[in-house]
């Protein structure tokens, strides 16, 4: 079974990164559906280390503002929802529940390097799933890495111990005047068949 061409267009061919946002709100139920899709994506050993903070109100936005690079302030602050994509360095504490019978917890609890690498890699992967799930739900997405992660962690994650990875702005983009899609590398430039 394969997605039809209109679904592929929604996810890839016609999907664009917005520079501005409409005022149409994103409902809380949409964010719940979004997470319900994201959490089903595969991670190694079903470790599921990603954690998400959805900023929807003005108080949260103002806490985030000082962390943003100057070039991102208007684009980020205008989004109906700003998601902090983070990961839990102690994700392995959930493994007895997430992967019962596998006895994976001890692998990560005794190897800090392995647990940090696994949390970052799989948390990033789950952030990628969020981009695709958001598009599948009709949302536009702007990924952002131009921010100070220490400021974000102190303002939003200090009590959790989670680590910030990147931001995702979610909403309904204003596509008026959007520039042509930037070029991509060809298959021959980016891939090798061995």
UniProtKB/TrEMBL annotation:
SUPFAM superfamilies: FMN-dependent nitroreductase-like (SSF55469). It holds the Pfam family Nitroreductase. Residues 16-172 form the Nitroreductase domain. Transmembrane segments: none annotated. It comes from the Bacteria. Its EC number is 1.1.1.298. Keywords: Oxidoreductase. This is Malonic semialdehyde reductase. PANTHER family: MALONIC SEMIALDEHYDE REDUCTASE RUTE-RELATED. The keyword Oxidoreductase applies. One of its GO terms (molecular function) is 3-hydroxypropionate dehydrogenase (NADP+) activity. It is an enzyme of class 1 (oxidoreductase).
């Amino acid at each position: 079974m394969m997605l039809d061409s209109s679904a592929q267009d929604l996810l890839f061919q016609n999907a664009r990164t917005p520079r501005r946002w409409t005022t149409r709100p994103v409902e809380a139920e949409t964010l719940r559906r979004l997470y319900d899709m994201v959490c089903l994506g595969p991670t190694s050993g079903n470790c599921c280390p990603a954690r998400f903070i959805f900023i929807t109100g003005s108080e949260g936005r103002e806490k985030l503002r000082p962390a943003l690079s100057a070039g991102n302030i208007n684009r980020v602050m205008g989004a109906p929802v700003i998601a902090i994509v983070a990961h839990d360095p102690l994700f392995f504490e959930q493994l007895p529940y997430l992967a019962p019978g596998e006895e994976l917890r001890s692998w990560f609890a005794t190897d800090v390097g392995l647990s940090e690498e696994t949390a970052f890699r799989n948390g990033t992967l789950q952030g990628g799933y969020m981009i695709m799930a958001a598009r599948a739900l009709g949302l536009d997405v702007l990924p952002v890495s131009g921010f100070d992660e220490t400021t974000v962690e102190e303002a939003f994650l200090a009590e959790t111990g989670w680590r910030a990875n990147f931001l995702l702005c979610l909403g309904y983009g204003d596509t008026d005047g959007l520039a042509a899609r930037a070029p991509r590398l060809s298959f021959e430039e980016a891939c090798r068949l061995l």
